Inverse folding.
């Protein structure tokens, strides 16, 4: 037996074991989706995304990258640094839940110039704004409210807004935006998290989650760590969860059918009443019908929204509701409901004597000359 050979074999086995142990504890960067080089739109299969060397573990759900862009910012060395900004969204059965707008440099650089507005600046409209100083840099944690998230996203993230519009995502009405920024000498980052408003049932719950977000990403944004796990999403109220599960966010059942039928009767009664009031029997029936639609819009809208679950309707933006109404209204116009009501009204009144008054007789034709 060769003792030197056996000793070498033992060293080799020990080295392999140590290497495997290191691999087991190494960050799974290869599995994280590199959103700076991913196609748009694309899913985030493992709920892990990466920008440069920074990895973020997202809460459970089917996340999708819906916007991505690369831009540059200045540095102390008069060289441009590459920055990537990506927007990922979580949609549940067509209902908007959360969107995250994240931007970080692909690689840190000394004297990196920040971008975007100062969320902690005075009079910036924040519900809460907390400036901080940590790791030798400046941070800001702020909370904003949006009455119509669809319009807000159209201004700040138009590609994300377009994707959600094309996918017929709803729930983009009232929303909460939590912003965290961190400025260090060699790095700067921004994270905007948008929640549909029903996620938070109190101001305390909202500020508590915002603090948890700051605590989870502060070291990563300061380049003191290269992996961060975002906090679990707030739990939706039991009533909203039950409604979602039972109805798929859409009303059903005999009671709702009765509500829809009742709303339609109210609308039809409005159309008939307006026909009596407006029809002069000389204006074309379709033009009178257009006036009827306009005057009875509120009643028609109630009929359109009667099939939408209250929890869903509560978070729909005015623009979403209007789009829903316009789609249904086009079908109503094509069916000619109001025009038929005008014609029925005219028929019920009998012939119009002013219209059937004796017209001047045609001149008698003269026999042709031969």
């Amino acid at each position: 037996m060769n003792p030197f050979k056996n000793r070498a074999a033992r060293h080799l086995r020990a080295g392999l074991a140590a290497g495997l142990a290191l691999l087991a504890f190494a960050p799974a960067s290869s599995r994280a989706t590199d959103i700076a080089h991913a196609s748009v739109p694309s899913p985030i299969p493992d709920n892990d995304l990466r920008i440069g060397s920074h990895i973020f573990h997202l809460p459970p759900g089917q996340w999708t990258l819906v916007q991505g862009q690369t831009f540059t910012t200045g540095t102390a060395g008069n060289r441009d640094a590459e920055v990537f900004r990506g927007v990922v969204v979580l949609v549940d059965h067509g209902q908007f839940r959360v969107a995250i707008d994240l931007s970080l440099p692909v690689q840190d650089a000394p004297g990196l110039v920040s971008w975007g507005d100062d969320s902690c600046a005075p009079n910036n409209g924040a519900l809460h704004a907390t400036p901080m100083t940590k790791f030798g840099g400046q941070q800001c944690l702020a909370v904003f409210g949006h009455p119509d998230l669809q319009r807000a996203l159209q201004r700040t993230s138009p590609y994300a807004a377009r994707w959600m519009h094309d996918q017929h995502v709803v729930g983009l009405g009232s929303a909460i935006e939590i912003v965290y920024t961190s400025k260090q000498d060699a790095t700067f980052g921004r994270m905007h998290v948008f929640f549909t408003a029903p996620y938070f049932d109190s101001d305390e719950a909202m500020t508590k989650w915002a603090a948890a977000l700051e605590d989870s990403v502060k070291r990563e944004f300061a380049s003191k760590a290269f992996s961060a796990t975002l906090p679990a999403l707030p739990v939706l109220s039991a009533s909203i969860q039950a409604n979602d599960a039972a109805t798929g966010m859409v009303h059903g059942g005999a009671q709702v059918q009765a509500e829809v039928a009742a709303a339609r009767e109210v609308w039809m009664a409005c159309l008939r009443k307006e026909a009596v009031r407006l029809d002069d029997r000389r204006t074309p029936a379709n033009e009178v019908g257009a006036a009827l639609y306009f005057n009875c819009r509120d009643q028609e809208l109630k009929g359109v929204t009667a099939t939408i679950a209250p929890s869903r309707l509560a978070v729909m933006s005015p623009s979403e509701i209007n789009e829903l109404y316009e789609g249904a209204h086009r079908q109503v116009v094509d069916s000619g409901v109001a025009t038929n009501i005008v014609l029925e009204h005219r028929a019920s009144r009998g012939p119009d004597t002013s219209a059937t008054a004796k017209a001047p007789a045609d001149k008698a034709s003269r026999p042709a000359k031969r």
The chain has two domains: 29-236, 248-348.
